[in-house]
Design a protein that fits this description.
This protein is an all-alpha fold. The protein is built from 24 helices and no strands. Helix 7 runs parallel beside helix 8, helix 10 packs across helix 16 and helix 13 crosses helix 18. The model has no long low-confidence stretch (mean pLDDT 83).
Length: 536
């Protein structure tokens, strides 16, 4: 493998690179040769995982959040990620835009209207009346639970672990480095390389699902604007075009490409949010922002631990299922690309203190998400009609967004903008924002996957980065083909199965990170050597 890598002009760890690439190619070929068998296998796997291990995902993310908050407020929060003289390479604004755009920018565009409206018309709690005031409050609460602190917990934990072991103790830029306190030099052997291969594959598929969702939304927007067909072929063409954009950014590198796209995109997204605030019911939405904060604070604990234990008594079919389609899907999906986001965030966070890192990554994007859902969510539910009196007064206008979401989730945002001035212009802008978010996620992931293979924070040869950028597009295209008319449901099945081993891997990072931190002499830290875990 070493000789082959040299002949191809690669600068990478051959075992990790070629094994990951081969596994990806084999999976793609299997999708082409026997798509129905693959689909049936993922369907059965997801059903078993959701039924038997759904509680584990819900419990696990709460454990991670409590652990991170403990680390931040403990004496270990003063530890600087790097040498004691290291300082952040990026200002706070650029740091925030890069981690946000590389994180869940596409997700907010996809679910910003769709999720609140869906929960509004189909309340998760069995005793809540659809389209009622209580349903509206619950809709905002569950949307923020899914995309607020808990989502960023899944990114922050591996991010902190990577930054600590990679930059503080000069270990390779790989997921296996996190497990040094547990594996010692075995991180360089078969066990460590197996961990890294799983991380590469999980990142590829996790980002591919995001690309699939974003592509579906772009296709829906183009159908609404210019009447292009909403089909698998169209989606594959969109993926191909935007992959070219992402590859161009990959070639430019982190500072020139990703940073520029991130800053442009977060500016455009913020502008779109302010447009909805000003053009909509401004006073109502400003009240909604304040009230949303209260709803989130008062409901985050009961929602975070709600496990629908009494489903057999409250559901007509007696099955445990709602959280499998929502919460468990979110956690498994998010965790598959948490190694990518974690290493990406670690890459842009060198020089920051642990406390600054944890609190910044957890709360800054979560606050933006809260404002986003407050403005888009409350506005969408107001348009749809909150309460029986409002819906009677609206007549045929009531329930239009609920109907649009039921018909097509990717169409929700564009149906929402039909109720605002300059509809065509705003819908076009939304398509551009989704496309740039897509490109930012893809190029960020490609750079990180390349780091996972090289073990080096510096970019590898252009051909390596381009290969992974094209690979992500190919996986996304094949998942779209596999999903066919089933769409989001098929993507949920794939990502739930792939997410389980990655979830277990990230859970184990708690023990590795805790052992590494406890080996620190926080009064006098020796930087430049792995932690002395033998003292524990």
């Amino acid at each position: 493998m070493d000789e082959l890598a040299k002949r191809l002009g690669l600068r990478t760890e051959p075992t990790i690179f070629f094994t990951s690439a081969a596994a990806m190619i084999v999976f793609l070929l299997a999708l082409v040769i026997m798509p129905e068998s693959i689909r049936d296998a993922f369907t059965a796997g997801r059903e078993w995982i959701v039924t038997n291990l759904g509680w584990f995902f819900i419990f696990g993310v709460n454990v991670w959040l409590f652990f991170l908050l403990w680390v931040a407020i403990s004496r270990y929060g003063n530890i600087r990620l790097g040498g004691e003289d290291a300082r952040p390479a990026y200002g706070n604004l650029s740091w925030f835009t890069m981690l946000f755009a590389g994180g869940i920018g596409t997700v907010l565009m996809f679910w910003g209207v769709a999720e609140p409206v869906f929960h509004f018309s189909n309340p998760p709690q069995p005793d809540v009346e659809p389209h009622s005031v209580d349903a509206a409050r619950d809709a905002i609460g569950f949307s923020l639970y899914h995309l607020g602190l808990h989502t960023w917990t899944i990114f922050t934990l591996p991010g902190l672990a990577f930054a600590y072991f990679i930059y503080r103790y000069n270990l390779p830029v790989r997921v296996s480095s996190v497990f040094y306190p547990l594996l010692h030099d075995r991180i360089y052997g078969p066990i460590g390389k197996t961990i890294d291969v799983f991380a590469v594959l999980g990142t590829l598929f996790g980002v591919a699902v995001s690309i699939g969702l974003g592509t579906s939304q772009i296709n829906a927007g183009l159908t609404e604007l210019i009447g292009v067909s909403d089909s698998v072929t169209t989606k594959v063409i969109i993926i191909a075009v935007l992959t070219i954009v992402a590859v161009s950014s990959i070639v430019a590198g982190l500072d020139s490409g990703v940073k520029l796209l991130s800053n442009i995109n977060i500016g455009m997204a913020t502008g779109l949010m302010l447009f909805v605030l000003v053009a909509g019911s401004t006073v109502f939405l400003l009240r909604g922002v304040v009230e949303t904060l209260g709803i989130y604070i008062s409901n985050i604990v009961p929602m975070a631990f709600w496990n629908d234990t009494l489903a057999q008594y409250t559901q007509e079919d007696g099955r445990w299922g709602w959280q499998g389609s929502w919460t468990v899907f979110y956690w498994t999906w998010t965790v598959t690309w948490s190694p990518f986001i974690g290493i990406f965030v670690a890459r842009i966070s060198k020089g920051r203190q642990i406390r600054e890192f944890v609190l910044g990554v957890l709360f800054a994007p979560s606050l933006f998400t809260l404002v986003w859902f407050a403005i888009f969510g409350w506005s969408a539910m107001e348009i749809d009609g909150i309460g029986s009196t409002a819906r009677e007064a609206m007549g045929d206008q009531a329930g239009q967004l609920s109907a649009a979401v039921a018909e097509s989730v990717p169409l929700a945002m564009f149906a929402f903008f039909e109720h605002f001035p300059a509809t065509t212009l705003i819908q076009g802008l939304a398509i551009v924002i989704v496309a740039i978010f897509f490109a930012t996620s893809s190029d960020s992931a490609s750079l990180v996957v390349d780091m996972l293979c090289t073990g080096d924070a510096d970019s590898g040869p252009v051909r390596q980065r381009v290969f992974w950028g094209v690979a992500e597009g190919a996986v996304a295209a094949m998942l779209i083909v596999l999903a066919g008319s089933v769409g989001l449901e098929a993507l949920q099945q794939v990502i739930t199965v792939i997410g389980l081993p990655i979830f277990v891997l990230v859970f184990a990072m708690i023990f590795a990170l805790a052992r590494g931190l406890m080996s620190e002499d926080v009064s006098h830290v020796k930087v430049g050597a792995p932690p002395d875990v033998e003292k524990l």
